[in-house]
Hints:
The structure holds two protein chains of two kinds. Chain A is of the alpha+beta class. Chain A has helices at about 5-20, 30-50, 55-75, 80-85, 110-125, 130-145, 150-165, and strands spanning about 25, 90-100, 100-110, 170-175, 180-185. Chain A has a five-stranded antiparallel sheet, covered by helices on one side. In chain A, strand 4 (about 170-175) and strand 5 form a beta hairpin. Chain B is about 35% helix and about 30% strand. Chains A and B meet through helix 2, helix 3, helix 6 and helix 7 of A and helix 1, helix 2 and helix 3 of B.
Amino acid sequence: MSSHPSATTLIELSSNLRRANVQLCFLGPFTSGIVQHFGAALRVYLQQQTSDESEVTGVFSVYIEMAQNIQRYNDRNSAALAACGVGASSGIIVIGRSESRTSIVAGNWVLDAEVGELERRLKELRTLDQPALKARFKQQLRSAPSADEAAGAGLGLLTVARHGSTPIEFEFMPGDRGVSYYSLSVEV
Amino acid sequence: MASFANIQGTETTPSVSFDVNGRRLCVIGESYPENAFQFFRPILEWARAHCDNEGLTLDLRVVYMNTSSVRCVMDLLDVLEDAHVRGRGVKVVWRYRASDSRARKMGEEFFEDLTLPNELVAEG
């Protein structure tokens, strides 16, 4: 039995992706070069879909923050994640488009120990309107020294929320080896 | 005075150049490196050492910035703001594409809490 997917598998995969309204999708290792070049491809795609430069900037911003969050998270926790059976290429980013909106969804495995705090922050972000998000962004920008990388993650989530035309949505699905699947989505 | 080595832009980092005669530090391009602090640190150090001498205009034309770059640019603006408070001739210009309202908003937000002379310039 060969290890590559058969034509039947590819057809199934394609129709599953289409059903989920997936226009573009990245699955693989989140490394600087790849994050950057998939971002460039995303921009080209968006420029073909809309003439609204502001929308292109918004979607691209959300993509970069989500991708760099996954990248930093995986880098920081590679040993702990590996111990839970999660490989270095854990992560997916999916771009969908309907009418005049683009949805960006990110998914990756996170350690169970971190779910509580992350969930608390995400829930709180959902309660903030745009002026409150802006105020929080500025406040956090002031309190987090730029040399502190971890402090940047909170700002990344705020940026994602600020670009959204609707509140962010998220989900945690418990796994069985000390990790949970975390998905975050927003529409621009 | 130490010389400033111009930095060439890449896809994820802006070009940085200093025009000695105009005392103008130009930052042009995009900024979303994984570690923005590493990129901006020498520029911050340079600005700290030099904006007191004969004044300085910071000319920013950055199409896109990730949040860690935003934090670094805030630090850079703080350096200029301090110099302004001490009575030095400093100024900041934010250039954006007229069709990109998010870029304009970013400039406006940068300037909201500043007292140093600033200018938003829409370009075609």
